[in-house]
UniProtKB/TrEMBL annotation:
Keywords (A to Z) from UniProt: Cytoplasm, tRNA processing
Gene Ontology terms: biological process: protein urmylation; tRNA wobble position uridine thiolation
Main function: Plays a central role in 2-thiolation of mcm(5)S(2)U at tRNA wobble positions of tRNA(Lys), tRNA(Glu) and tRNA(Gln). May act by forming a heterodimer with NCS6/CTU1 that ligates sulfur from thiocarboxylated URM1 onto the uridine of tRNAs at wobble position.
Family classification: Belongs to the CTU2/NCS2 family.
Localization, UniProt: Cytoplasm
Protein species of origin: Diaphorina citri (Asian citrus psyllid)
Name of a matching Pfam family: CTU2
Protein name as annotated: Cytoplasmic tRNA 2-thiolation protein 2
Bias kind Polar residues: ranges: 414-425
Length: 486
């Protein structure tokens, strides 16, 4: 037991649940003092139907107005999934386009739906039924449909205006993307990979349709879950891009989150009062255990907070919203080939955690003879340093596995994560742009671990990375030609 007399281990230290307010039959809405209250938000705020809809419409329009990023000539691509939040987003845009002239939304809107049922093992008949409902919900806008498999073919991507034209039979269970997801061993990595591929596919579709903005329907609750999950997955450096109002990681196309100030409860009541029914589309984590993945655990935690302590969820979200990118610790000139965010894997800094991790992994797998003299070249030749290790002082009496990083007893010319380790001679980086080490070096910290989470059949998983590598080479060639012309 605790020797402290402070009440540790008792219920005295627990935060009391916020008192819930119950609406009486004759309780009037305090905003209009006319209609009876129908909804209680944040356990204390009472709204009638009319006041709630007016409040949510104003919040949506204020989010767009305060950003000062929307122009009348903009073309917006809305990512639609059939969920409560995406249904509310489309309806808010539709209502905004029907208002009076001085308040009407002037930018044009089109919507896209990405079918990812193949990796969720959903039958074709069920996918067709879900797609028909999705098409009905999108009927008021120019609608486009595609499959997740198109993410592996960015050059030959096809968008369909009729949902019945989707080639669902073409992408069977043995398709390339299904094989790739089967090689990923954990649900956390599969969910992260799915989210990243969907994001890349949205960017490709926006370029094809000449859209300048992308709207996603992420609510405050969704973003609070994303904050906790992404930090757990190693994407803490990119939190400002992942949860901020705008995400401009690609430069030419900006992703906006106009529902980021909405709670999930507000979105649900908005749909109820407007007779909007969401479309339930099974996903990778449907019916999964709350602890099956980091994302599911974070979702369960935030949902419980939202129920009993709604103000805490807002605190998590607002705290992360104040963070900014630390460009001094990133390689801003290079972006991750998978998620397109700036690389956060610089190892040339004096206090780089990535450099420490790589050195620790090497030391843990090296033999005593290999640890006698180790020379490590960092990401920059200017930071190359000689590290002489006394085995007796470093590892003491602990035994080290008799194998090197790549499973060989010989240390010369061993390359790990783009770093070359050789005793008693100066080390240079590999210039092989086709090897797996180069692919790893071109990924951010979180994406590296997704690739490492794949089984031995990595050639399937590296297919998309090699396509990204080719895209990077083309971009570098374009920059060289542009400089030459200037």
């Amino acid at each position: 037991m605790c020797s402290n007399n402070s009440g540790c281990g008792t219920n005295e230290d627990l935060i009391p649940e916020e008192e819930k307010l119950e609406i009486k039959a004759d309780k009037l809405c305090p905003r209009c003092n006319t209609n009876n209250g129908e909804v209680v938000l944040r356990l204390k705020d009472i709204y009638c139907k009319a006041c709630l809809l007016q409040y949510l419409n104003h919040k949506f329009r204020a989010a767009l107005g305060k950003s000062k990023m929307m122009r009348p000539q903009d073309k917006v691509l809305v990512a639609f999934s059939g969920s409560h939040s995406s249904m509310a987003l489309l309806h808010l845009l539709q209502e905004g386009m029907q208002l009076s002239s001085h308040k009407r939304i002037l930018f044009s809107v089109c919507a896209i739906y990405i079918d990812d049922g193949s990796i969720s093992q959903v039958s074709i008949s069920e996918r067709k039924a879900n797609n028909a409902q999705i098409a009905t919900a999108m009927k008021y806008f120019d609608s486009y449909f595609t499959c997740l498999e198109q993410a592996l073919e960015p050059d030959n991507m096809k968008l369909y205006t009729d949902v019945a034209e989707l080639p669902l039979e073409q992408f069977a269970k043995d398709s390339e993307i299904n094989k790739m997801f089967q090689t990923v061993t954990t649900l956390s990595s599969r969910q992260y990979l799915l989210q990243t591929l969907r994001q890349n596919l949205l960017l490709q579709a926006a370029k094809k349709l000449n859209c300048t903005k992308i709207f996603t329907a992420e609510t405050q609750t969704d973003l609070a879950t994303k904050i906790i999950a992404n930090i757990s997955l190693g994407k803490g450096a990119h939190v400002p891009l992942d949860v901020g109002f705008s995400d401009d990681r690609t430069g030419d196309i900006i992703t906006l989150r106009p529902l980021r100030d909405f709670s999930s409860k507000e979105v649900i009541y908005y749909n109820i009062f407007n007779d909007l029914s969401p479309v339930h589309v099974p996903s990778l984590a449907t019916l999964a255990d709350p602890l099956a993945s980091l994302q599911k655990a974070a979702e369960s935690f935030v949902t419980d907070l939202q129920t009993n302590f709604p103000s805490t969820v807002s605190t998590v979200f607002r705290t992360a919203d104040k963070l900014s990118l630390d460009l001094t610790s990133m390689n801003v000139n290079n972006t991750c080939l998978l998620c397109k965010a700036p690389l956060d894997t610089r190892a040339d800094l004096a206090s780089s955690s990535m450099g420490a991790t790589r050195f620790s992994r090497y030391v843990s797998n090296a033999t005593r003879e290999q640890l006698s003299h180790v020379i490590i070249s960092s990401e920059s030749p200017d930071h190359a340093s000689k590290v002489t290790t006394d085995v007796n002082q470093t590892v003491g009496s602990q035994d080290i596995p008799e194998k090197s990083v790549n499973g060989s007893e010989d240390i010369p010319n061993q390359i790990v994560n783009g770093m070359q380790y050789t005793p008693n001679e100066k080390v240079s980086r590999t210039e092989d742009n086709e090897g797996p080490d180069n692919l790893q070096r071109s990924l951010c910290y979180a994406c590296q671990y997704v690739v490492k989470d794949m089984t031995s059949d990595k050639d399937i998983g590296e297919g998309i990375l090699k396509k990204c590598l080719q895209e990077k080479s083309l971009n570098e060639m374009e920059d060289q030609i542009r400089d030459f012309l200037l």
